[in-house]
Specification:
Helix content is 43%, strand content 7%. The chain has 3 helices and 2 strands. It has a two-stranded antiparallel ribbon with strand order 1-2. Strand 1 and strand 2 form a beta hairpin. The longest helix is centred in the C-terminal third of the chain and has 18 residues, at 62-79. The protein is elongated. The model has no long low-confidence stretch (mean pLDDT 78). This is Transposase.
Length: 90
């Protein structure tokens, strides 16, 4: 961008000045363990939403809906590979 100076000559415009660039999360409190726990819960809800009856609230009665959530959670739990706490892998 070129601007004309009051004297008639041409000047180059200064580069645009924006807010100072900061890295995300700089200065924010972040608890890694709390984030991990929250992530586990969010992933669980997202897996439950894969079941159509749960996602659309197909059952009108709360007891039936709760039973559907329990069944879906049980199916997800049974699908999950077994984790051996005594294994050498960490």
């Amino acid at each position: 961008m070129v601007r004309r100076s009051p004297g008639g000559g041409k000047e180059r415009a200064a580069p645009p000045q924006g807010p100072a660039h900061r890295r995300p999360g700089n200065g924010l409190a972040f608890d890694r363990e709390l984030y991990k726990a929250r992530n586990v819960v969010e992933r669980c809800f997202n897996r439950l939403k894969q079941f159509r009856a749960i996602a659309t609230r197909f059952d009108e009665l709360a007891t039936r809906y709760k039973a559907g959530v329990h069944l879906a959670a049980l199916i997800l739990w049974l699908r999950e590979p077994a984790r051996d706490s005594l294994s050498d892998r960490s």
